[in-house]
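The data layer described in this paper is built around a simple, fixed record for each protein. Such a record has a labelled line for the sequence and another for the backbone structure tokens. For reference, a complete record is included directly beneath this paragraph.
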Amino acid sequence: MTDAVWPAEFKDLQRFAPWALPTENGRMRKRLASSMTELTDYYSALLPRMEALAAHLSQWPLDTLPAAQKPLLYLGLMFMEAAVCVELFKGPDVQESLGAEHLDVLSETMERRLLAV
């Protein structure tokens, strides 16, 4: 959706198109590769827009979500990655733990269904 036309009410979020990653593994890797400044900027931009984003996406059942709308869903899912960093971890990863880079995240049912459509 980087080259696609974004819905007018979400044009301000288009600068975050590189954050609209379709898999949990991709989103986790983006989180780990981002600075806290980047994560906080993303979080701060999306936080006041999440309710509108969810309302917009609720127009479609997940199985029929148009391809042009999927990046908006991915932005919302990436918000969850950023939120835990900003609100809980206070860093891109959990401090004093085995780093997330050691995890292999498997695609979930939703991701397989979305990628197949």
About this structure: The helical segments are 24-33, 36-46, 50-57, 70-89, 109-116. The chain has one domain: 8-116. The chain has a mean pLDDT of 83.
